[in-house]
Amino acid sequence: MNRKLNIALISPRTGMYRFGTGVFPLTLRYAPLNMVTLAALIPQELRGEVTVYDESVQRVDPTKIKADIVGLTGITGVSLRSYAFSEYFRRQGITTVMGGPHATLMPEEAGRHADAVVIGHAYETWPRLLRDYLDGKLQKFYYPPEKIDWSLIPDPQRDFFSDKRFITTNSTQAVFGCPHQCEFCVTPIICKGNYERRPISDVVGELSRMKGRYVTFLDPSPVENVEYSIALFKAIAPLKKRWGGLATTRIVDNPELLDAMEASGCFGLLIGFESLTDSGNTTIGKGFNDIRKYRRLMQELHARNISVMGCFVHGLDSDGPDCFKHTLDFIHEANVDLPRFTVCTPFPGTPFFNRLKSEGRILTENWTLYDAQHVVFQPKLMTTEELQEGHIRCWESAYRISSIFKRLNGSRTFLEYTILANLGYRFYCHGHRRFPPKRMARDWQLDVTTAADIASIQPAY
Ligand code: B12
Ligand code: SF4
After folding, report:
1. Of 391, 404, 401, nearest to 341 (Cα)?
2. Hey, where are the domains in the chain?
């Protein structure tokens, strides 16, 4: 049989990150890999018309989409909108498949809204699912094999995004999972505590086929296997790329690793400092973050011309109303190039969610509010209002012109990027007040969602 499948892949938007009316005037972000990877995984002999939509950079009108199968992805914050899309397409007789972080964390829930759910990585299961569909044997749940063959990763079909407004479409991933178990983090849950690596030659091959110089590594925890990381950095150095990625604060104790990063073209790292107190880091199981070494880490990175997106979380059980001041003092003293703040968020499926649930502290299970910028649980040492307001004020203070000037003047690292990024974030943080919880709570709905669908999806707020 020679039947071809028409497939539409949709990444729905969240409340604050949206095309046109979101917090960013432009899309200040790199392209995600998931949908363009799934597009590349569709077996050649089954390929009909394949389209990829990302609602954060384009308007998506579901009434215009005609396909045999619609694939939907979603992090927790977009999951209700994903369900709304799915319910709409099922009403049109189109088969829907869900995957991604939230469906992996909550497969039963996703299964109530989609015909099939792909749990975890899809390198092997997505092509199998498509063949099952054609054979009339579609299953409800697809689990990844015990041992994933990382060499199955194809070059993503980046051309789907080339005319979209991403900073770069050159994203890739070399390492999967994390050996740590931070209480709030979804990575160890999704990857079942495994920490695995792609063959270095595959990563080098993919990088060398990318157009342009700039690359983003999306690995949530890339440098915990130091031997692999140094070998990877040495292997990519001859390509003369410039790359940004993530790292933990632990790199401060490893000058060889820092030197290898610099020599391989690293221009920026996202680092989870999380808390400025020992008790804060210990409560979340991130005790390896040593606050006494934070300033030295910043100096080591700036000395190597590596800029830092520093991530800080507010609302931990040991955080009182003074936590915002600690964060602001640190970002100014250490000249953090691009500070980023989140409200501690108990993503469902994590130990953090389970603990707060058992303590009766989860205030809403409306997943749209689980975007790490809205308070969804009862903090211990603050009121919800103190946490929400303090968090927004922290953003606003960090992105005053005087604050930007102080930090960047002290850092003077990769200014051609950090000045623009700071101005973008300045605009972003002033958008926070436009997205109060009540507005956000309804934000997942589609124009074409019917009352019956809303009843089936509607969470409590
Ligand atoms: C790119 C990215 C973003 C982008 C775009 C997000 C998006 N909508 O895709 C931006 C910058 C906007 C972003 C923002 C945030 N993000 Co983010 N982000 C990522 C990141 C780094 C890469 C995603 C990616 O492309 N991965 C690579 C692909 C290959 O893996 P994958 O996504 O898991 O997809 C595979 C499978 O899941 C499966 N699959 C996925 N979708 C589908 C769909 C179908 C139909 C099928 C069959 C299979 C399938 O197939 C793929 C191949 O195996 C991930 C971390 C990571 N490395 O995955 C975090 C991650 C997705 N983000 C996360 C978080 C927490 C956030 C923020 C809250 C961060 C913050 N602190 O502010 C914000 C939230 C924004 C909001 N308002 O809600 C969490 C998700 C947690 C959760 N439960 O929601 C992750 C997992 C990181 C982490 N460890 O915490 N993020
Ligand atoms: S927060 Fe970072 S270090 Fe902790 S488990 Fe998640 S990926 Fe690993």
Report:
1. 391
2. 5-148, 170-437
